[in-house]
Amino acid sequence: MPTSSQRASVDAIRAVTRGLGYAADGDYCNTIEGWCDDATISTALYFKLRRAGRGPLTGKAGRRTPVIESPPAYYRRMAGTR
After folding, report:
1. Domain ranges in the chain?
2. Distance CA 63, CA 82 (A)
3. Of the candidates 58, 61, 70, the residue with the CA atom closest to the CA atom of residue 12
4. Of the candidates 56, 54, 49, 52, which has an alpha carbon nearest to the alpha carbon of residue 70?
5. Number of Cβ atoms within 10 Å of the Cβ of 38
6. Taking a C-beta distance cutoff of 8 angstroms, is the pair 49, 55 a contact?
7. What are φ and ψ of residue 28, in 5° steps?
8. Rounded CA separation 53/8 (Å)
9. SS (H, E, C) the chain
10. Strand pairing partners for 21?
11. What value does the mean pLDDT take over residues 58-80?
């Protein structure tokens, strides 16, 4: 029987696969392309920020790399790091 954290991971993966943006528990979880659409930036800028260490928080779910930080939370975090 899976633990609650394993079930949460499965829910997050399902949300990402369907491109919903939010998992069943209300946490943000999206693909890189979906996050870029939500944040209104290009994927090229996303990868440029990620290489510089200033990208949004991501997780690892098998071969997938879901973004687990919503655009508003990312912008708030970046505003405080100047």
Report:
1. 4-79
2. 33
3. 61
4. 56
5. 16
6. yes
7. -75, 135
8. 27
9. CCCHHHHHHHHHHHHHHHCCEECCCCCEEECHHHHHHHHCCCHHHHHHHHHCCCCCCECCECCECCECCCHHHHHHHHHCCC
10. 29
11. 90
Q: Which residue has the tokens 């899976």?
A: 2
Distance of CA 44 to the CA centre of its chain: 16
Q: Residue 73 has which token pair?
A: 């939370």
Segment 17-68, tens digit of pLDDT = 455 566 556 678 889 999 999 999 999 999 999 999 999 999 888 888 899 9
**CB-CB contact of 81 with 72 (8 Å):** no
Q: Of 81, 64, 75, whose CA–CA distance to 10 is shortest?
A: 64
- Is the model more confident about 44 or about 5? 44
**pLDDT confidence of residue 10:** 57
